[in-house]
Amino acid sequence: MAFQVRRVVTGHDKNGKAIVVSDGPVPVHGNPLRPGQRSHEVWKTGAMPIPIGREEPDPVTGKRQLHPAPQGTMFRISEVPPESDAIRNMTPEQAREAFRASGAEHASTWGRGGRHPLMHRTETVDYAVVLEGEITLILDEGDVNLKAGDVVIQRGTSHAWSNRSGKPVKMLYVLIDGKFDPALAAQFPK
């Protein structure tokens, strides 16, 4: 049976009492250029502070996005398959196409200093939790091997996730919109 994420969303009834608004599976997105990779889109917001009303539409329907809206957040659980030769042998254009499928072609840093075809940079602070398995975080300078229970606070760095374990990995991500300091941004390759 395929991995499935159940989402219980609370809200308020007409009298302001706490209720369950929805209870069921979350939307799942894949990327044809990354077979086996699945993103379970749990929730996202588009403002800070987050407006809380009685009846908001489900924010995760529609096309998958790599990063949150301005002043927004994203919460997803991803299944990362073992890395394939197809990934390791991607050209910079193929890597940009893979990110284009997530609405973020510009995020790819492969061919512009990135050490791995899935290297990318987003203007976000990301909380990444390894739920199951082992994965390698690749940075401009070095790799970090991670296992279940490890947490990464990814602060707008160029990075990639490489599953060298031979087994699927489950990751939880919370992405928060950020803003690069102009002096730091000026140092990034174009």
What do these coordinates show?
The chain has 3 helices and 11 strands, in the order βββββααββββββα. The protein has 190 residues and is mainly β. The protein has one domain: Jelly Rolls, CATH 2.60.120. It has a 6-stranded antiparallel β-sheet with strand order 3-4-5-11-6-9, with no helix packed on it. The protein has a 3-stranded antiparallel β-sheet with strand order 8-7-10, with no helix packed on it. The protein has a two-stranded antiparallel sheet with strand order 1-2. β1 and β2 form a beta hairpin. It is globular, with a radius of gyration of 17 Å. It starts with 5 loop residues before the first strand and ends in a 5-residue tail after the last helix. The mean pLDDT is 91.
Q: Main attributes?
A:
single chain, 190 residues, mainly beta, six-stranded antiparallel β-sheet, three-stranded antiparallel β-sheet, globular
In brief, what are we looking at here?
The protein has 190 residues and is mainly beta. The protein contains 3 helices and 11 strands, in the order βββββααββββββα.
Question: Low-confidence runs (pLDDT<50, min 5 residues)?
Answer: none
- What is the 3D form? globular
Structural class: mainly beta
Task: Determine the CATH superfamily.
Answer: Jelly Rolls
Output the number of helix runs.
3
CATH topology: Jelly Rolls
Strand proportion, as a percent range, falls in 35-45%
The termini sit apart by 44 Å
Number of strands: 11
Mean pLDDT over the residues? 91
